[in-house]
Prior knowledge:
This protein is an alpha+beta fold and 124 residues long. The protein has helices at 39-42, 57-60, 63-72, 78-92, 96-116; strands at 2-10, 15-25, 47-51. It has two domains: 1-54, no CATH class; 55-124, no CATH class. Residues 1-9 have low confidence and may be disordered.
Amino acid sequence: MGLWGRSRIIPQSNRLLFTLYCNFYPTRSGERENPSHFGEILALNRVRRIYLDELGEAAEASLGVGVVKLVIEVEDTAPELARRLIQQTKQQVTDEAAKRDLINLIETIKVTRERENPYLYMSG
Length: 124
């Protein structure tokens, strides 16, 4: 589970317009009934729960959703997903700094997962 927040400032007045939190879950069943952490925040109307397995086909082509999915991907398919995301980044991202940063992020997730199970990534 990850809690991500975003705020917007109204430029003319420098006042906070809103804060929206997105909470990502692999599946709807992965959500806790009584969350011990962030319980007060999760009860707010400004919290949106996003279930990655319910995003549909449009999300399959999304590079951003793919990177989030890589964090929770099952061990059998994580190595291939990482390779596909790196290839997709090379093809779709034109800004060289953004491309480098995104590939570094994917590689960091890959290395972290590799430490959990070193046999997954031996071919890649």
